[in-house]
Amino acid sequence: MTRGAGRAVLFLGVVASGRPGPAVAQDTLPRPEGVRVGITYAPGARPGITVLGLGAAVAVESVTTILTRDLDHSDRFELVAAPDTAAPRGAPDLRLLAALGSEWAVSVAADGARVAVQLLEVRSGDVRYRAAVSLGAGAVPDRAAAHRAADEIVRAATGTPGIAATALLFVRDGRIWRVDADGAGAAPLRTAGNPSLSPAWSADGRRIAYTAYVPDGQPLVIQTLAAGARAIVPGTEFGLNITPEFSRDGSRLAFARGTEAGTDIYVYEVGGGEDRVHRLTAGRFADNLSPTWSPDGTRIAFISTRARTPQLYVMGADGTGQDVLGRFDFGATGATAAPAWSPDGQFVAFHREVNGTPQLFVLDLATRAVRQLTGSSRNEDPTWAPDGRHLAYVSSRGGARELWVVDIETGRERQLTRLGGARLPAWSPRLDGGGR
């Protein structure tokens, strides 16, 4: 793929003046009314971008490194390295960057007790976004602020924010761990029960739900991240309660409960009592589990063994209209498991056995076409990034089970953890700091 404006389409739009729109973020430049010029990109095109650290300060180098990695991991740009002469007198040489194929430039410079970040459109020289990353003790930059700046750079350049200011939960050695989306900061959380399994994020990123193994059973626990306050989901104090998932508005929690008669899916109206827990399936000695919400909260996809081999089904949020969602393939592949509905509502990801080994698949809900994403080693338990483009999953390709990330548009993959024994990942929504 070639770089440069040959991949971009110039558009000229007229924006009608009228009442002021909603307030913009403090670090986002307002767009003037009247004639507006911009660039839009054809599907699959990746504009060139250069990140320039202006000056030799350690904090500048650190923020430059974070932004460069985050923009690379967004898979929406072609990173263009620039020679030292690209920033004479502390300002980017936009003509040189244009000649090198950059359509965007990010400048990073020291600004007192913070680091200033700017996104410039190379063709026009216009500043499209500004941010300031604060510095802590020892001039260490606020990593969360740098990640959020990277996401807003992606938004300003492409219209869709990035995924840097997110985190993943996963299980390792019976404990729930957390890791940033760039693989940094992996650490276990304090949770109830040992082991603790099946972590799930709330829609606002401030709470998690999980299964806690305690002497009397496996209840579901909802826990706040900031304070660590915990509450048991009513009615789950005893027995096996697994695979929780919050609805996108945070008002409901779907989960599976196992009894001697089988496993069924229930929904808890968060904040209510035991009378706010409703059963949606009637297993009759079948297992129904792993519920995943549609973004609008009207449907739930799940796994059922009612036809013997576990397959992908869907139903209304009230349990009506239960039907097969992923087609049967008459033995070409095996059991299906771990469905995950994409944030944009277009896909359901899952893993399915191929020659006895789980591989990742994506079901396109518009066409019902199924696409296989992986083909070697074990690859299982997919979870969507909030951009609806990236999936994290567990892979054994290096021997030990680790978290990997795949861009479903390009197929590009990267390893996220190097700890061994990772299981059951859950990708957070975008975090504003309250869930950290």
Structure description:
A five-stranded mixed β-sheet has the order 4-3-5-6-7, covered by helices on one side. It has a five-stranded mixed β-sheet with strand order 13-16-17-18-19, with no helix packed on it. By secondary structure, it is mainly β. 44% of the residues are buried. The model is unreliable at 1-41 (pLDDT under 50). A hairpin with a 6-residue loop joins strand 22 and strand 23. The protein has helices spanning 58-74, 94-100, 143-158; strands at residues 8-15, 34-41, 48-54, 78-79, 104-110, 114-121, 127-134, 167-172, 175-180, 187-188, 196-201, 207-212, 217-218, 220-224, 230-232, 239-246, 252-259, 262-269, 277-279, 288-293, 299-304, 311-316, 323-324, 336-341, 347-354, 357-364, 370-372, 379-384, 390-398, 400-407, 413-415, 423-427. The protein has two domains: 5-15 and 28-158, Rossmann fold, CATH 3.40.50; 167-427, Neuraminidase (6 Propeller). It has three helices and 32 strands. The chain is elongated and about 75 Å long. It starts with 7 loop residues before the first strand and ends in a 9-residue tail after the last strand.
